[in-house]
Specification:
GO terms for molecular function: glutamine synthetase activity; oligopeptide transmembrane transporter activity. This is OPT oligopeptide transporter protein. The chain is mainly alpha-helical and 856 residues long. 61% of the residues lie in helices and 5% in strands.
């Protein structure tokens, strides 16, 4: 009966066996799985996917899995290559799924550095531009401007350590514990399907659809570029739901990238993003802004962390930390419990029989074949340990030269605890498909930032230690995901490891280079730019919080942070309980992390993603099978086309080529003002031989300014001075001085300025005011000042270099020197526009003074 049962099980396994379909194909040795064409294709795809990841990283910071894109494009490129060589008779080696897996591994490792390298988070958070937005910890010891040289060097010395940290554990993780690694498993099934006759046909259809949507997305991005001549221009600033909603960042910005991302992300993630934007930009921020002048100084700039921006940054940080801490604890306890149970089962089985004897017959055909291949090409443990120690020593020596704030003993401590965290992250990722690399990085910011302190550069040191920790932990879990993919495609662990090393090396050069293109071409980190890089401010805010404590928070911000931290924790707790209890509401509980992201950015990208979800939903309603097969390809095409346009757009920006058109949307009131301004401007736009001279005099105090305009053909200064209005063309002006109406008349021009309103060559001519009898009016203080300055004793003093001033004026009047305007002594006179109702300087808080101007 036992034999019959085993035979039935074997027969059942054969019906669903993947490896039976490839049983006739010989598994190539690991050296033949690594080919020059696979590495060439990997470099090309790695470069372009790095551009896409970098753009996502610097915009909203949401990066979906691009494994489908890498797998499809890798398969298509090599398959096309082999077909061309086959027609010419030069094909020497067929394209296998093992080579496809090597390409996948190398591409993902390369483009992964664009994320784990922290270009949109801790690296940009070190820069002066981001530091200036905080107004604190902005000294040289806590800032470091990104530079291509040190970026490449830093990544090269820290990115390889994580690869060696988990290599000795690969058999335990994949064969003994049978961890699923969902993303790695899904990628393996995709690659396996490509190399079956039916799968190859389906892959060609998917690739065809991907390239169609890629082309459409690229052309759409290029078309949009023509209308973005300035900030706030183009389709990206389209006030879809009205101008008031646009002010609160509720609008659809026509981004093909985030429509595609929305098609890939689960529905609940997109709903969570939109819900977070409603809570923050629809309710919370308007409420806090209504407390302007009560909770925070109304004169603070919008970007100051002591004002409204502080609430945005720190409340979102509280939610992110709450979400990260919860998942850290869940993964830790789940991993510990899972390991304990497996240890118990192993101990219970030992007394009865040899474990090795029981495992073999119980495995399916697929598992037996995969295990044999996986255990065949070993990576010696001694090599892994030696590699870890070697790169750790290099890092201990090199990193303090790049970041003097970090001492050698700080790096040693990091590398002592890093293998433990790398194992925890790899194990948790195998169970949940959730990498906590960023959470471990934030933990490093707190630990090392508090250890080093503000005055010793704790902010910069915390950000740099985050980079060290994230690089180790992230690459370790990525390697284990790829080893799982290799296990399911019969790829050698040795070829997978070498491919990961090569891909990482490519990424350490390609990713900084791509970032440098963005950094040189665009205004990164600015809230008004197309690349706000929200996580750069979040990570720097965490670093400041780590070294300064709660004193960095504005009024009542700590209360809000505590509430949202526990709300984040509670939402995740409810989600876990609902999942464990199998409650129906599980699918409808939002993601706390998803809700936190739009707290700073706004809802514009969440609307894009919801549009993507709507497209997918309608597609699934019409044909679910078709949508399941082709939606990932369509989404990938949308993401890739829009992302790749960033390359020519950045090159155009570096070449100082600006878009020709600005498409803006104005309210009726703003439009009326704009039309008036256009009329004023058009009045002088074509005056090549004529100018308008606006003569201006201020008769007394208050709102009694008077002016009159004259048009001159081929003007010179003497003509302007001689033909000033003398009150004959208009009624003489009258003002009230000390209760008496005084009749005023013009006197000679005293100063000339370019007209900032009419522009062109038009001028403003400032005049003195006199009574009709020729006496200066009482408020004409310049009259007495001029008598003093024209005194021979004063004229003999020359404290200023008057030659430059004379030359600057001579350029206005055809080389005629205007000595009568050159003062060798003088006073500065300022004109301050006042608010009509309050008689207080325009733009100042009524009854108060503006805040210190160095606070940003």
């Amino acid at each position: 009966m036992t034999g019959a049962g085993e035979g039935e099980r074997e027969h059942g396994d054969d019906e669903q066996s993947v490896e039976r379909m490839f049983d006739c194909q010989e598994v190539p040795p690991w050296t033949q799985q690594l080919t020059l064409r696979s590495l060439a294709v990997s470099a090309i795809l790695g470069f372009f996917l790095s551009f896409i990841v970098m753009k996502l990283n610097l915009t909203a910071g949401i990066i979906p899995s691009l494994n489908v894109s890498a797998g499809l494009l890798g398969f298509f490129m090599v398959k096309t290559w082999t077909k061309l060589l086959e027609k010419t008779g030069l094909l020497s080696q067929p394209f296998t799924r093992q080579e496809n897996t090597v390409i996948q591994t190398c591409v993902v490792a390369c483009s992964g550095i664009a994320f784990s390298g922290g270009f949109g988070s801790y690296i940009l958070g070190m820069s002066k531009k981001v530091a200036d937005q905080f107004g604190e910890a902005d000294t040289g010891v806590n800032m470091k401007e990104p530079s291509l040289g040190w970026l490449i060097c830093f990544l090269l010395v820290v990115s390889f350590v994580g690869l060696f940290s988990v290599v000795p554990l690969r058999k335990i993780m994949i064969i003994a514990y049978k961890l699923t690694y969902p993303s790695g498993t899904a990628t393996a099934h995709l690659i396996n399907s490509f190399h079956t006759p039916q799968g190859a046909l389906l892959a060609r259809k998917q690739v065809s659809l991907l390239f169609k949507t890629f082309g459409a997305s690229f052309i759409w991005a290029m078309f949009q570029w023509f209308y973005t001549a300035s900030d706030g221009c183009g389709f990206v600033s389209f006030p879809t739901f009205g101008l008031q909603a646009y002010e609160n960042r509720f609008y659809f910005d026509f981004s093909a990238t985030y429509v595609g991302v929305g098609m890939i992300c689960p529905y609940i993630i997109n709903v969570s993003l939109f819900l977070g934007s409603i809570i923050s930009w629809g309710i919370l921020w308007p409420f806090i802004r209504s407390k302007q002048g009560v909770w925070y100084d109304a004169s603070l700039p919008e970007s100051s962390l002591h004002g409204i921006n502080g609430y945005k940054v720190f409340i979102s940080i509280a939610m992110i930390l709450g979400d990260g801490l919860f998942h850290f604890l869940v993964v830790f306890f789940r991993s510990s419990y899972d390991m304990y149970n497996k240890r118990q089962r192993k101990d219970a089985a030992t007394p009865f029989a040899d474990a090795a004897a029981l495992v073999g017959p119980c495995l399916s055909f697929d598992d037996r074949r995969r295990s044999n291949v996986f255990l065949k090409d070993q990576i010696p443990t001694a090599v892994a340990i030696a590699g870890y120690v070697l790169f750790a020593v290099i890092s201990v020596i090199t990193v303090p030269f790049i970041f003097p704030q970090l001492k050698f003993y700080h790096i040693i401590v990091a590398y002592i605890i890093a293998p433990v965290l790398a194992f925890c992250n790899s194990y948790g990722c195998g169970l949940t498909d959730w990498s906590l690399a960023s959470s471990y990085g934030k933990l490093a910011i707190f630990i090392f930032g508090a250890w080093i302190g503000m005055n010793n550069g704790g902010v910069l040191a915390g950000l740099a230690s985050c980079g060290v920790m994230m690089s180790i932990v992230s690459t370790a879990s990525d390697l284990m995901q790829d080893l799982k993919t290799g296990y399911l495609t019969l790829s050698s662990p040795r070829s997978m490891f070498v491919s990961q090393v090569i891909g990482t090396a490519m990424g350490c050069v390609i990713a900084p280079s791509v970032f440098w293109i963005f950094y040189s071409a665009f205004d990164l980190g600015s809230e008004t730019s197309g690349y706000p890089a929200p996580y750069a401010k979040v990570y720097r805010g965490i670093a400041i919080l780590g070294v300064e404590g709660l004193s960095a928070l504005p009024k009542y911000c700590l209360n809000f942070c505590a509430v949202f931290f526990f709300v984040s924790f509670a939402i995740n707790g409810l989600k876990e309980v609902a999942k464990y209890k199998n409650w129906k509401i599980y699918s409808y509980i939002p993601s706390a992390m998803g809700m936190a992201i739009p707290f700073y950015l706004g809802s514009y990208f969440t609307i894009d993603m919801c549009v993507g979800s709507l497209i997918l939903y309608l597609w699934e309603r019409a044909d679910k099978r078709h949508a399941t097969v082709f939606a990932p390809a369509v989404a990938s095409g949308l993401i890739c086309g829009d992302g790749i346009w960033s390359l020519p757009a950045s090159l155009l920006s570096l070449a100082k080529v600006q878009p020709p058109i600005c498409m803006k949307f104005l309210s009726r009131a703003d439009n009326d003002k704009s039309c008036l301004s256009s009329e004023i401007s058009s009045a002088s736009i074509n005056l090549t031989e004529k100018i308008i001279a606006e003569y201006i005099w201020i008769g007394g105090s208050g709102m009694d300014i008077r002016s009159e305009a004259r048009v001159y053909s081929n003007p010179d200064w003497f003509r302007i001075r001689a033909s000033y209005p003398s009150g004959t063309t208009t009624d003489p002006a009258r003002v009230r001085l000390q209760g008496t109406t005084v009749k005023l008349s013009y006197s000679g021009p005293q100063a000339v300025f370019k007209d900032p309103f009419r522009r062109g060559n038009n001028i403003l001519v400032m005049c003195d005011a006199y009574a009709p009898a020729g006496d200066p009016i009482p408020t004409n203080k310049r009259f007495n000042a001029q008598k003093i300055y024209s005194h021979p004793d004063v004229m003999a003093e020359e404290p200023w270099n008057t030659l430059c001033f004379r030359r600057s004026l001579s350029g206005l009047f055809d080389g005629q020197l205007v000595d009568f305007l050159v003062l060798r002594s003088g006073i500065e006179q300022e004109y301050t526009p006042l608010q009509k109702e309050a008689q207080w300087p325009l733009g100042w808080p009524v009854g108060r003074f503006p805040g210190p101007q160095f606070l940003i």
